[in-house]
What we know:
Shape: rod-shaped
Number of helices: 13
Structural class: mainly alpha
Strand order of the largest sheet: 1-2
Amino acid sequence: MLTISRLAAHAGVTVAAVRHYHRIGLLPEPERDHSGYRAYDAAAVVRLIRIHTLAEAGVPLARVQELLDASPEEFAHGVRDIDAKLRAETRRLQRTRGRLARLAAGEHLALPASVVSYLDRVRALGVDERYIELERDAWIMVAAQVPDRIESIMEGKHRDLDDPDMVRLYHLLSGALDYVADDPAVAETADILDRLLTRAAEAGDLDQGYDDPFADLLDATMLESAPAAQRLLALLEERGWRGGWTRIARTTEDSRRRP
């Protein structure tokens, strides 16, 4: 007859593990002998080894009892079922790891891949990282506001980066966070925006369809972030545009002047 420590040694487990198996009902607890010790026999060793083998193979302890008492056919079916669940869990964990790897870049958090790739293209132009962060935060809000339209919006934005005017605009915007109102670059920015907005209006792509509260939020964010933003809006108004950044449109008078 064996003590609990000898039983544990024969099965390659700890005494604490044996006691845990007692508590959850996997290993019957023998009666104590006249000296007050529990004595285990060979059957207990065999059962403990089987329990340990199943647990080491990844079988949940909640299912170990079922497999210990199963017929060969039931055992094979149970193992296949557990294997299928483990494979499904492995796939889930792999997907989770993939998402975590993408999140490591920061910009993947709450942003679709199309926006991230767009920001990467803007970054490759040498644009100030402070401005990229500002635009990134704006796109996070846009993606949440119009999730069904964000892909089509980004298709247009990617096309825009093939326009030399847009590339020059980004170079100017890269320094916009530090411009003062009378900086000559502000006037050049207004000229380029005038050309880009004109082309967008002619193509019918000017209105992004944001609701008023959201448009106000985007406009306020821009005005608070760049000291020269208000001056730029005033220059655009001189060139025939009205409204904020998000809902800009031609003035009625300017529409009559232009063909």
